[in-house]
Write a structure and sequence with these properties.
This protein is an alpha+beta fold and about 220 residues long. The protein has helices at about 5-40, 205-215, and strands at about 40-50, 55, 60-65, 70, 75-80, 85-90, 95, 100-105, 115-130, 135-140, 145-160, 160-175, 180-185, 190-195, 205.
């Protein structure tokens, strides 16, 4: 049987203390690295919210509030009756209606890095108003069609087999995801792209439908 002497114990405690100090020394650099990574991925801020909304990133979900930071690759979700407005780093705004889910797939960060904005609308409705910097690419990808903005204000709504696009100002090119058909919409025009059908021509939406999509993307405070 081995018996530890006081000297052995002192050596053991010394090694433990040294390990603890080493680990403590790593904590601050790791925290700084985490903060730097978060800063690089920062996409914008929650500028308006009513009801309950969340952001999910890498399997972790957090509840959003006014002033909360959203990040590249965040999946934003609104509950029934909720509205969410996000102001991106480039000055563009996104207004989500209830029961909607939007992924910030590619974003220009707050340091101006990145060439464009690509958003995946998984469900529901979103209104996008481009900021003054006018990124090279600004796309909202619905389940059936992609809306590519050209200095504009537009609304996209998506379901499993239909994506609708309405242009309030400027121009938007709408492309069917599963085909090569593309059309350009101007202010006041809208289109419904249905999976499996040829992309039709844009039409001027009636005032009732315009009022409906606008009201569903209004965010109060």
């Amino acid at each position: 049987m081995t018996v530890k002497t006081s000297i052995d114990r002192q050596r053991c405690w010394s090694r433990r203390a040294a390990l603890a100090v080493g680990l403590a020394g790593l904590t601050l650099p790791l925290a700084r690295l985490s903060a730097q990574t978060a800063a690089v991925d920062a996409a914008g801020l929650v500028s308006g919210l009513s009801g309950h909304a969340t952001a999910t990133l890498d399997g972790a979900t957090r509840t959003l509030h006014r002033g909360a930071v959203v990040h590249r690759r965040d999946s934003l979700a609104t509950a029934a009756g909720a509205r969410l407005k996000v102001t991106l780093a480039d000055g563009s705004t996104l207004a989500m209606g209830e029961n909607s889910r939007l992924v910030l797939t590619s974003i220009i960060d707050d340091a101006g890095r990145g060439h464009g904005v690509v958003l995946d609308l998984v469900a529901g409705i979103v209104r996008a108003i481009l900021g003054p910097s006018r990124p090279e690419i600004f796309e909202v990808r619905g389940r059936v069609a992609v809306a590519a903005a050209r200095s504009t204000d537009f609304i996209v709504e998506t379901e499993s087999r239909r994506t609708a696009v309405f242009v309030a100002a400027g121009e938007v090119a709408a492309t069917e995801i599963y085909g090569d058909d593309a059309v350009v919409l101007t202010a006041g025009e809208g289109i419904d792209v249905r999976r499996g059908d040829a992309t039709g021509r844009p039409v001027r939406w009636g005032q009732a439908r315009v009022d409906d999509v606008v009201a569903r993307t209004m965010v109060d405070g």
